[in-house]
């Protein structure tokens, strides 16, 4: 029985040292105290995406880091091959939904934690569902799923007129990945750090692969491409100049980048060998959960922003600070275009050619899921042609501002490139909005 | 590929459960894990998490040594205890919960304080394959290290302390045959072909007019031929300067007659294999030159084989190790590919036979049974001869009393490494503090944290002086943070550190992959963790 003479111990005996005490190397908004600890416990909601090797560890780690309100989503059922690492599952659980069993087991063990399981696909949830959480922690094993969640989280992001992200719309994510003895953990703060998609546009759409990164001095995934492009390209291809429109060229660049990335044991690049062990999952999830605690509380500085881990040949960890792509189609603000409500789609397309930042000719225009105009193929061009004479404002549903994507041929450094760009269209004269300085409306 | 004669068989259900890890270390590795017995000292979250990963992986047996009772505070950081277990033996509780994870594991516990056990019953540790010692202070670390070295028991230390921590292996020597590096050049000997390979290459005409035949000549043949042509004009030297290499590459390219000749494209990609230096690497050279390669009757199988390797290289190997024997995939006619494969396999087998004879001979010479090292083992050794690794670790006592000053200064000069050094020093300093003041700095609320910080700093500075790096200015922030941590054992840090420890244990027991060297110092503030080899 507990010693009756000593004062009642706090369950958060260890966590309290970090949350209740002032510190030195802490986040910018750190207000230590019992209130912080209690607020985290009572109000902060974390979503764990995936209840597999990483997800099980994440749920445990978060439940034992002061978080009480967790949700977990996973569409899979438990299989025998999961049991060597997904420690919340037993042989008799085979066949049951992972999310439900995982939630149940953690709640049984850690009293006070509430975990709501969601046995469903991530795409089947309403966007509002994701907006309810303070942080989304990813324990996924596919690029597509990561891209999806990244798109959703970055979709909540709003920018001010001066292109600074609006704090209350920022939804941070922590993302982990493992394979064999290798893994990565990264922090994604939309609008601040690179998002998952930030440099994916460099690659042709038919080649499905992950964000390729370098764990060396180059600080940008783009540099990985640049390396392959600038240095090794000429060694192998001699006088032939690199053409990003040539799928073969891009595939070569991708392959080179992969080789280089593999040298540093960066997971997520190259083929999946489908090897998984408990220890790597434990390590990566712990790093992710630690970052979650730090982001929420400010109790220490956070990872900036990508950690790679390789434990097969000795032990190597490296932190790389990648930079955002300002023009990112997913997390960027998009180039601001201000228009009169009377401007037709045709006039808009003409303007894109003159716009100093775009110089985009033969543009196709997309608004959300709707194609407003397509240059090709002829059948679709003809179908969308009537839109050209209509006001863009009407075609966009008469909203005062929204995002459009334009695709065409851009002129950069006197070279022509295919280009897909995100634009932020704002209509003047709608709801009495006053003129702004950067207007280019007719 | 012939099956390993000694491969243990597994029941079907077990095989599928471990499927994802069998792909990594195979059934031989799995068998090694299942035959291992692990002792854990202290089952707070660091130890419990380390053991959890091993239990899930199917370790043979675990014995938990911990004399404490479960406290309410443990409910906030340890997954292997629950509310009902408050007041119960922590060792018993953790043992039971770990057992639930895998009923194939034999789980035991001993209710005793590890520090006391180290003093009163050192022989206790001899029964284990490996000891995982968590949350021990300096003094106990040194004592346990002596005991384990004496008993030839492997030892892994792990510690979590606030947002920092460490992992350190302590073993006199760990030799690895199956090191499984991520990337390793294949052994095609394009830069040093042997007679049978040369004869085969000569029998093929690169200038064949038949376009189908032309584009199905494997790149091995193309490059061996072209390298031969080159050396004839260049006084028997292979391309070495940048210009020469480019010239050689262009030469290969010029032999292409059409754009769709994949074999020639592969040849161009593979020219670097021709430029690679002949013979063995510096690392293998160091191993064969090692003192232990001068074998006696007590030498391990590894060193006996290294001695044989040394002889082989100096004689029939002609500067090269036994041929690895496998060939990567390449564009080729089936006939050429199969013939080439046979040539490589034949030489590999011949080299291996040679090695077998030498091993037997050496065993006899040192008075041992010539059949005591199996054919299988020698075969594996031959296949991995270029990838051998030897890991040695200083005793804790040596490291503490005589750390490498050059290494320290090198680390301190690097921005990346300096915070790791800071934490390493502070982890030792808090133990000294505890030895003097019977508590860790900042451990209890209500105490004077600032005063503790000042005392800790003084302790750290004298330690720094002892270590011989007086010039190092311990950042005040780091010192203050250490006090703030107050010896807290946070679950996430314990899970990370314990995870690393468990992974190192797996590598040590399976004798596959390469264990870490030095002390891994965890930095949970910015994740700038580093390994320091002091």
Automatic annotation (TrEMBL), chain A:
Any one GO biological process: protein neddylation
Pathway(s) per entry: Protein modification; protein neddylation
Gene Ontology MF term list: ATP binding; NEDD8 activating enzyme activity
Chemical reaction(s) catalysed: ATP + [NEDD8 protein] + [E1 NEDD8-activating enzyme]-L-cysteine = AMP + diphosphate + [E1 NEDD8-activating enzyme]-S-[NEDD8 protein]-yl-L-cysteine
Active site: 212 (glycyl thioester intermediate)
EC code(s) of this entry: 6.2.1.64
Domain (E2 binding) ranges: 337-428
Keywords: ATP-binding, Ligase, Nucleotide-binding, Ubl conjugation pathway
UniProt function note: Catalytic subunit of the dimeric E1 enzyme, which activates NEDD8.
Family indicated by similarity: Belongs to the ubiquitin-activating E1 family. UBA3 subfamily.
Stated name of the protein: NEDD8-activating enzyme E1 catalytic subunit
Organism: Brassica carinata (Ethiopian mustard)
The organism's taxonomic lineage, starting at the top: Eukaryota, Viridiplantae, Streptophyta, Embryophyta, Tracheophyta
Automatic annotation (TrEMBL), chain B:
Main location per the UniProt record: nucleus
Pathway info: Protein modification; protein neddylation
Subcellular location: Nucleus
SUPFAM superfamilies in the record: Activating enzymes of the ubiquitin-like proteins
Keywords tagged on the record: Nucleotide-binding, Nucleus, Ubl conjugation pathway
UniProt cross-references to CDD domains, sorted A to Z: APPBP1_RUB
Family: Belongs to the ubiquitin-activating E1 family. ULA1 subfamily.
Function: Regulatory subunit of the dimeric E1 enzyme. E1 activates RUB1/NEDD8 by first adenylating its C-terminal glycine residue with ATP, thereafter linking this residue to the side chain of the catalytic cysteine, yielding a RUB1-ECR1 thioester and free AMP. E1 finally transfers RUB1 to the catalytic cysteine of RCE1.
Protein name: NEDD8-activating enzyme E1 regulatory subunit
Source organism per UniProt: Brassica carinata (Ethiopian mustard)
